Amino acid sequence: MRQPSCRRIVWVAFTKFCTFPFPDVLLKFFGLTTRVRRDAWKEKITLFILYILITAFFCTWLEFVTTLFCDPPKTFEFGDVYSNSSHYSSVHGQVFDWKKYGNSTEMTTQANLYPHLDLSPMFPTFMLLKRPNGQSYYEDSVIENCINGFNRSTQADNWLKYLLNHDSGYHFENDQLISCPIPGRRNITGAPCFYSQDDIHQFNQYPKKGAISFDKNYIYNNCTLMPHKGLSYGRAYVILDNKVLDVTDYLQAATDIVKVAKGSYSRAFALDRMFLPLDLTIMLFINLGTDITKLFYKEIPNPTVYKECLNTLFYHGVVDGNTDEGCAHINVALWITVGCFLLYFLIKMHLTSLTRFGFIQRFLFKSNSNRLVMSSFVPYTLLFIPFYSESSETIRQTLDSLARTNYPDNRKLLFFVCDGIVKSQSDTKDNYLCVLDALGYSSTKDPELRAYISLGQGSRRINYARVYAGFCESGRNRVPFIMVVKVGSQKEEYSYKRAPGNRGKRDSMLIALSFLERCLDLAHHRINPLDFELYNQCYNLLGIDPRLFKYMLVTDADIQVQGDVVHRLVARLEADPKMLAISGHVRPANPEENLVTMLQIFPVFITYYSALAYEACLGGLTTLNGGFVMYRLWNADPIHSKWPKVSDEIVESLKRKPQKSATMISSSSGTSSSSEESVSPHRRRQPDTVSYYSLQPNRSVQPIGIHPTVLRGFAAPRPDTLHMENILLLGEEQYFSLVLLRSHPNHKFGFEPEAIAYATLPTHFFALQGFQIRNLRALLHIQIEFQHVAKHLGVMYWLTSFTKFIDTIFSMPIIVYLYIAFVRYFLYKDMAYAIIACSFMGLIGLHIFYLTLHRQFKYVMWFILYCLFGVPLFHVYFPLLAVWCSDYSYWWYDVWPTEQYGFRSRLHGIIDDPSHDQDQKEEQGMLVNRMRLIDFEREEAEKNALREKEQAEMLDAKFNGFTGYVGFNKTDVVSFPPAVQIRQHHQRFGSGGSSQSNPFASALDSPLDDDVYNKEDTSMFSTGTTESSTIQQQQDIDRDSCHYSLSNSILSLEPYHIDEELAEGRNAPVHSKIAFYYS
């Protein structure tokens, strides 16, 4: 068991501190019986608490902390302003210091005469209702909307006329206001009036000290009475939105005093002088001294219009504690915080939208596809397709799309991996049988089971697989294929709870990658039985050297590609040797199937185009999604390019004496000939030379994607913590891109928007939910893991990864806050929220503009649907569910339902069953022998020779003519095979001009060479004493020439004719039926 790191120790201690109310005894009672599961649950709770705390801190910052940075208007207590020692005075709720201005103007001179008093009567705002004769409109726009907007100008004129004629404090004569009430003596006139436009302009030039503030209790107790007989001066105030309104004059002139009894009076509303609506006037009248905000917005129609009108005519101050009043209008800290996210979204959207223009794409994503067409060398490419529960129709579409790509058939190989035997709900046969039918495989005989060490735990460590190979015909294309079917052990075959052989996508990728890595140095690397079978089928049946594959396209089984995809991706990789891998553009294949697929259109666009294009514009991608990616397997090493290649050793056939340990191969013919025979010039492209097949490493080749460091980093980690479980079990292909970048820090990833593929979207909501929470959990932990790698990659990688990590963390709370900002704006019309709402509405409008500019009018409808329903679903509901389900990573939810599970989760393929924990002793005895290629061929030679001997004995048991077989001794069997004749690639590939060189080299052993493989070769066959000298001679020859034997498992010294159908795989047998022995 590996020792935990310091970070791990601190983290575990912190999780125990956060979950101290839940001891292990209590967790055992609720079903968490193992320590691993209890630790994972504690880590999940800790992560959830941290996420809640981060969200709470973010909301606290936006709601409260930002108010500390805004500058609310300064307020003055009314008691301080109106005290005898004060030199301040107030005008309509605003405090002024007139003393500092002296007697420079008439206004300041008069104001200085009345310190510590309310000067509002000298500046009558009701004169805004005064219109010149013959003018139908009001100068003030607020008054115009309030009065003329509701046809109440007549009532306003009557109200103003009644007030000026009945208020003793005002002297109105010749259509002019001559004098106003003296401050402090409301009913006595004598003070000048300042209400003209010039006076208003001059008044606005004087700065205000701040608003006068009133205590709510003071208003409630002292400002509820209107002037009447016996009370010459009264005050009638109401509170609206924390603002104090003095409605004394309005109610005084809009009502009449009526005597109801002797000594008892009341007020009646004068409808002809009521320029405000009756319900509003009644509300003001019966709620004097109270806060009418809730009633006002609930019962008054057009509240915004009348609110502005009341503030313009009757504003008299604010209430105490109104510190957020200024922040509701100007909140700079809030704008900066939200503006950072807005700027990030804006830059990301702009870069994404600009990359969709053709001339921008040609500049950013330079492709040399035309140069690749003109080139005589087209790299070999492996098309890797793992599948599990996808329907047969979907896989058939994927197969046809890959087979019919315009890439040469002789330069591509379809490599299918069936990740366990299961049956889809829409099929009647097992998954691999459906694929074999689609491939046109007609043999009824199952290949031999081949063992290999998988990523499974415990009893699932050893897995078995079958290898099928042949040629797939689709349209005019005839493409070679190999399919590996994981069938599992015998215990799994009879298990009804889990699919036999299932080990996950990471295990499937490692089958192909580790096989290609071991092929780099077949002379020294040890291979397992599955690797040997893969090499045997690939080289001897299909006629392709697996070491020639330079690129590997990994695509999911539910993704269909366009015809030029492989060509474009290979061209980009060929143009830039520093590019590790390149991702294509995935679009939805069924966008309008139902509402569930419509909601996924823009999330797919964001994931497979927007995020990739944005990072590509910044200089490099951080991670790849893995569903549609081409990887670079190896690269030509320019340092050793001047060295001679071992596989290119040329020997003049006419000058060198032929040896029995090596044979020549023709350049274009499908028939092999001995080195002693003459070669016809018309049958050979190079009649004077022959090349020998070498298993030695080629030092002019540098492994990239199959570098041992990469494979160790991809295969070695174990899902023993919550963090690693979410990475290795849910983000398998994304983790591979991280390992690639960590192993090759001077390289980068790329994006090709013109390489288009179409993915079949989930049509069931629960399938979508399982798929999204799986991706979100993997994305979060991959981003955490990438932070440890980014610091070694440069500033741009760190900046990109950090912003991506912040986006992952804060996208949910910022989306929620934006919804709150929109609601607040529509309810209260605060300017602070209005700016935020308008900014993001502008962002949405800009996105619609780009869609319209690209003439994607249907996407506008889908974008609106996404904004209304998809945003809360994908950015609020799914993230919360993903965090809560983060300890369920060992449960896998299949997007494609199976007949056994349907739309239900299942254990991940590498997780061992709890009932198999006691089988460790049995597991220790289960070893997979790994041998070198020549040893496997020796073993196969003896098996086949022994098989032929047994067949001959059965047929000729009573025939005495072949005494050699009657007295057969085991020592007569070939114990060490000679180097054999290797045929050239079949002529249907047109490979006469292709090189037979070996471009691979590696001095390192397999990354999976763990304890299971540490056993020395126990399968070496002992030789007889009569053969010892021959064996020693053969070993010396092999050691000197470095040319090892390869065959179709049956070795030969003499030339033999390879049947045309057998060579192309159209005949059923894989192995040849010819065997020769040393004499």
UniProtKB/TrEMBL annotation:
<feature type="transmembrane region" description="Helical">
    <location>
        <begin position="45"/>
        <end position="64"/>
    </location>
</feature>
<dbReference type="InterPro" id="IPR004835">
    <property type="entry name" value="Chitin_synth"/>
</dbReference>
<dbReference type="Pfam" id="PF03142">
    <property type="entry name" value="Chitin_synth_2"/>
</dbReference>
<dbReference type="GO" id="GO:0030428">
    <property type="term" value="C:cell septum"/>
</dbReference>
<keyword id="KW-0328">Glycosyltransferase</keyword>
<feature type="transmembrane region" description="Helical">
    <location>
        <begin position="795"/>
        <end position="820"/>
    </location>
</feature>
<keyword id="KW-0812">Transmembrane</keyword>
<feature type="region of interest" description="Disordered">
    <location>
        <begin position="986"/>
        <end position="1038"/>
    </location>
</feature>
<feature type="transmembrane region" description="Helical">
    <location>
        <begin position="859"/>
        <end position="884"/>
    </location>
</feature>
<dbReference type="GO" id="GO:0004100">
    <property type="term" value="F:chitin synthase activity"/>
</dbReference>
<feature type="transmembrane region" description="Helical">
    <location>
        <begin position="832"/>
        <end position="853"/>
    </location>
</feature>
<feature type="compositionally biased region" description="Polar residues">
    <location>
        <begin position="1019"/>
        <end position="1035"/>
    </location>
</feature>
<dbReference type="GO" id="GO:0071944">
    <property type="term" value="C:cell periphery"/>
</dbReference>
<dbReference type="InterPro" id="IPR029044">
    <property type="entry name" value="Nucleotide-diphossugar_trans"/>
</dbReference>
<keyword id="KW-0472">Membrane</keyword>
<protein>
    <recommendedName>
        <fullName>chitin synthase</fullName>
        <ecNumber>2.4.1.16</ecNumber>
    </recommendedName>
</protein>
<dbReference type="GO" id="GO:0006031">
    <property type="term" value="P:chitin biosynthetic process"/>
</dbReference>
<keyword id="KW-1133">Transmembrane helix</keyword>
<feature type="compositionally biased region" description="Low complexity">
    <location>
        <begin position="666"/>
        <end position="678"/>
    </location>
</feature>
<keyword id="KW-0808">Transferase</keyword>
<dbReference type="GO" id="GO:0016020">
    <property type="term" value="C:membrane"/>
</dbReference>
<feature type="region of interest" description="Disordered">
    <location>
        <begin position="654"/>
        <end position="687"/>
    </location>
</feature>
